[in-house]
Amino acid sequence: MRQIKREFELRDQEFQYIRDLVMTQTGIVVSENKQELIYSRLSKRVRALNLGGFDDYIDLLEDGRNKDEMVAFVNAITTNLTAFFREGHHFDYLRDHALPKIMERNRQSRKIRIWSAGCSTGEEAYSIAMVLAEKLGFDTWDWRILATDIDTDVLSSANSRIYSADRVTGIDAQRLQRWFRKGGGRNQGLVQIAKELNDRISFKQLNLVKPWPIKNEFDIIFCRNVVIYFDVPTQKRIFDGYARHLAGHGNLFIGHSESLHKVTNRFESLGHTVYKKRDS
Ligand SMILES: C[S@@+](CC[C@H](N)C(=O)[O-])C[C@H]1O[C@@H](n2cnc3c(N)ncnc32)[C@H](O)[C@@H]1O
Questions:
Q1: What's the confidence (pLDDT) of residue 279?
Q2: Looking at the domain assignment, is residue 47 inside a domain?
Q3: pLDDT of 243 over the 90 cut
Q4: Domain named CheR-type methyltransferase: which ranges (predicted)?
Q5: Do 145 and 204 share a structural domain?
Q6: Is the residue at 178 inside a domain?
Q7: Best of 22, 23, 74, 78 to mutate for ligand 1, by most ligand atoms within 8 A of CB?
Q8: Which domain holds residue 269?
Q9: In sequence order, what DSSP letters do the residues of the chain get, joined into one string?
Q10: Å from CA of 206 to ligand 1 middle
Q11: Predicted pLDDT at 116
Q12: Fewer C-beta neighbours within 10 Å, C or N terminus of the chain?
């Protein structure tokens, strides 16, 4: 391992312990060359807790009584990069193809259920909500979004509805005007999303590699840029789980660098990382 002068020493066996713990707690595969990343994410915890080094930090994590630190550990490890209308073609597909089909199918129940799995700070779920609100309004359809993540910090941030103004620069003016309010005074530089969108979203903690406390069937599942961090058997378990929770007419959206090829045969590609369930 490359030795750099650091505030704390991260010994090889400590790094190996942390890699294993990340895998069992989150499913995320930390490759051998990611010592720097682990150091930069976790040295903050060692410092915040006033510990002498990674050996003390591991002792703390091993002591099963410290549940709070395990939460902070997981929160520190996750990568939460996201954006409003990221991979914008999915939102066009949602509006122009997926929703009309679901509306036809669900015309009796007038219910639509969508899951944003690995929702990070909420931009994906709010983008979905904007599309639904613009197409369906709030009165005639009971549409709801479940937005889940393993990381409790990102979920609190999502629920606050507050974003830095530079996060919304790519959103078109009409949408901005309709769904965002600019902060003034000490909230200068911030924007807040409309509460009526948040009212349709349940942000909940859910670890995709542990049993899911979910009974519902969803019309659409978004799981984008999440499984990229998992090994193939874990990806397979998750996608097979989505197949069980997706309605027959539903769609699965995955990230542009992800693929179901050689992972699961439960889905059929419709192109551009949009899938439907294969007839069984
Ligand atoms: C890169 S973000 C993707 C956000 C959004 N889906 C997008 O495409 O913009 C990946 C998210 O997956 C979450 N994640 C990682 N491991 C997870 C797990 N085991 N269960 C649930 N969420 C997880 C992370 O906390 C992070 O917020």
A1: 80
A2: yes
A3: yes
A4: 3-280
A5: yes
A6: no
A7: 78
A8: 89-160+196-277
A9: ------SS---HHHHHHHHHHHHHHH-BPPPTT-HHHHHHHHHHHHHHTT-SSHHHHHHHHHSTT-HHHHHHHHHHH------TTSSTHHHHHIIIIIHHHHHHHTTTT-EEEEEEES-TTTHHHHHHHHHHHHHHTTTS-EEEEEEEES-HHHHHHHHHTEEEGGGGTTS-HHHHHHHEEE--GGGTTEEEE-HHHHTTEEEEE--TTS-------EEEEEE-SSGGGB-HHHHHHHHHHHHHHEEEEEEEEE-TT---TTT-SSEEEEETTEEEEPP-
A10: 10
A11: 98
A12: C
